[in-house]
Amino acid sequence: MKKLILLRHADSDWNDAKLRDFDRPLNEHGEKNAQLMGKRLCRLGVKPGRIISSPAKRARDTLRQLTFIDSGVVFQDAIYEAGVDDLLDVVRNLPQGLQCVMLIGHNPGLTELARVLGALIDSLPPCAAVGLELKIEHWKEVAPGTGRLWLYDDPKHPDPGPLDKVPEKHKS
């Protein structure tokens, strides 16, 4: 069994129209939410063996707030503007020795990936985290329906927790 955590980047700043989408930083609200989610994920014992992140500034800024992370971080261009097939390829090519991996990226790709794997979610809000237990032994076996939701949290929730804390509409 493998674990995959999907974390959408926090709210980004749209104030500078001259910035490319790739270069947009987090806004103040996003910074606070990323710090909050970092603390919550730490409290929940989330410890990925590796983090694969979009190289976009807002994803990097979100990652920077996860102060509990001591795992290796890899930035992959394929995650920026990725669709579900691109994200499945990223997951299928993970090193076999990793048991728990976090992807930090963007919508709609992350929401689509969560749905394809088996999580019944509407849409990942900014800085939301979805944890999936995958019924596989090797990452290359990741396929539609192989996941089971074990964690859902977003900054608007009053208290994070295991699946029993997941709002009914997000349970699978």
Looking at this protein, list some descriptive labels.
six-stranded mixed sheet; disordered C terminus; 6 strands; alpha/beta; Rossmann fold; 172 residues; 4 helices
Describe this structure in words.
Helix 2 links the parallel strand 2 (50-53) and strand 3. It is globular, with a radius of gyration of 15 Å. The protein has one domain (2-10, 21-170): Rossmann fold (3-Layer(aba) Sandwich), CATH 3.40.50. It starts with a strand and ends in a 19-residue tail after the last strand. Helix 3 (84-92) crosses helix 4. The protein has helices at residues 28-43, 57-64, 84-92, 109-117; strands spanning 2-8, 50-53, 72-75, 100-105, 129-134, 147-153. The chain is of the alpha/beta class and 172 residues long. A six-stranded mixed sheet has the order 3-2-4-1-5-6, with helices on both faces.
Number of helices: 4
Oligomer: single chain
**Secondary structural class:** alpha/beta
What proportion of the residues is helical, as a percent range?
10-25%
Question: Distance between the terminal alpha carbons, to the nearest Å?
Answer: 18 Å
Major β-sheet annotation: 6 strands, mixed
Describe the structure in brief.
The protein is an alpha/beta fold and 172 residues long. The chain contains 4 helices and 6 strands, in the order βαβαβαβαββ.
Helix/strand layout:
Layout: E1 2-8, H1 28-43, E2 50-53, H2 57-64, E3 72-75, H3 84-92, E4 100-105, H4 109-117, E5 129-134, E6 147-153
Helix pairs in contact: 3-4
